[in-house]
# Entry
Amino acid sequence: MAKDKKVQKLDSIVPDEVTTCETTQQMLSKAKMDGVETAFDRAAAMKPCPIGEKSACCKNCFMGPCRLNAKDPYGKVGVCGATIDTIQSRNFGRMVATGTASHTDHGMEMLKLFRGVVDGTIKDYGIVDNEKLLDIAQELGVPIQERSHNAIAVDVCDELEKTYTQLEGELPFVKRAPAKTQEMWRENGIVPRGAMREIMEMMNRTHMGMDQDYANIIKQISRTALADGWGGSMVATEIGDMLFGTPKPTQGEVNMGVLKEDQVNIIIHGHEPNLFESMLISVSDPALIEAAQAAGASGINLVGMCCSGLEMLSRRGIPHAGNFMSTEAVLVTGAVDAFTVDVQCIKQGLVNVADCYNTPLFTTNDRAHIEGAHHVEFHEDHPRECTDVIVEMAIKRFKEREAPIEIPARKDTGVFGFSHEYINYMLGGTFRGSYTPLNQNIINGKIRGVAGVVGCTNPRVPQDEVHIELVKELIKNDVLVVQTGCAQIALAKAGLSLPEAAHLAGPGLSEVCEAVGMPPVLGLGACVDNTRILTAACNMVKAGGLGDSISDLPVAGAAPEYMSEKAIAIGQYFVASGVYTVFGVTFPITEQTKFHDLLFNGLEEQGMGKWGFTKDPREMARMMIAHIEKKREQLGLDVGKERVLVDMADRRAAEAH
# Structure
């Protein structure tokens, strides 16, 4: 720790009680000795507001704030007469609007980058996956015959722009959903138009004196969330694949042991891959490598954290230091020479921790400054003016290192990058790509169903613990797990992201994993790539045998350690798409209210999915498995059948007839 920093006395946490991550435990112990405060300390010192936690308060006007009693929800109303159901649905709607706005803004920035590449004003990036471009063009109805890739890309860009700007009609990717799912959306009046319109209407409806019927407000909540899942986020993922490459499995290292004491360590944390891609070029520049060596380093070590780190891990195999709750702890190593961020999931507390170890923390995006951080603006049309400067500053810091270096020795390995396209290829081969083998193994019972386990880490529960215990229980019961976001790093640290982990699965799932050569847990990318799961679900329906809509599938989702409004938006777009979705930590709705019953039961009666909640990972697994078994029974799959693994020979023979 720097000599001039004030040391605090921190006695509030026991590291192995707040995190199961050994390297984070080690760094929290060091932080405690150094008198450095982290989010774990702040969470222990600040208890959640019991009224706000259950959404029993309203701050939407200045006659209040009005606080209702969650233990007696119908005992009183707000000053304007708003009931607990009106207040809760408004609050829930604003969470969804904020989460959708975050993903939409990210998607619009990706579209802006794509537009610049297509019109030639941005020259440092290009379209890498032309096959994906042609697939998207055909899906959107853009002509491709006898046309250049650039001309096609112009029209694709125009079509995708409708996702954000159109005032009427349906989002372009709505047609990707199964016909029966689309029909359900139209019957319920929740098909999204344009993302900006839905967010605006959601905010307007929740203003004082506007929509005051929770059953009507939920329609706009669902429409707004669907504008995220089938709009802003889905477009961002597809553009990212076209520009930077569609992920395919790559082996990568995770955990803090990826830092190197004899090298200049640069960490990128955030959500936008264009910054990371430019930084990859900068750290490979011979002139900057020579400068690092002149400063006494053996090289430059580029490392990711959180979601932009997951994108680079999936696409490039760049090592990853840890998930959201490890972002402060990694600075305690003293080995980080530049910590660079762009947008979303960035703690303001990083500045103080970085300052304690004389690590420069750089913000790069005009939408996300942090008081006390160094700001170096990133521009896509000349990106290296930002990334080169950061590398130069990191080299300077390496040369002037003061804090003692303590890098945990542990590194873990996983296989990442299971995009929808690769899963399709993995199951069926180059010329016969299909989800049919997956469906067949669900039908014959070797795989009971599929679970999406996604999301963040939260200091209100021991870091990584719920993710790990939940997934172990699911795969043990022959449920294939797909993951996005920080959950992936938790599972990789636990050794569950390798094919060798198949022995921890049930007999059916382990047999399939061994036949295909895959792990029982498939990492699909960053949290902004959750829509890959929706696309996979669509292809399961398309392959046949598992119903006609997403709600028919034996699938379930969970965000066991979620922490942001983005997660609420994600959860609602999965529920509105037909997926039973279970959250942990807390749920911001008061039980024994009409709005709670609507979310946890009523939406399913309308043909959608429904919400679930529990803090306990084994109970969460039980709930998800029970739902999967219910869907199997409804599909008639509960009847015992001969369990035969469908291999490539069987697949070709079946298709020959």
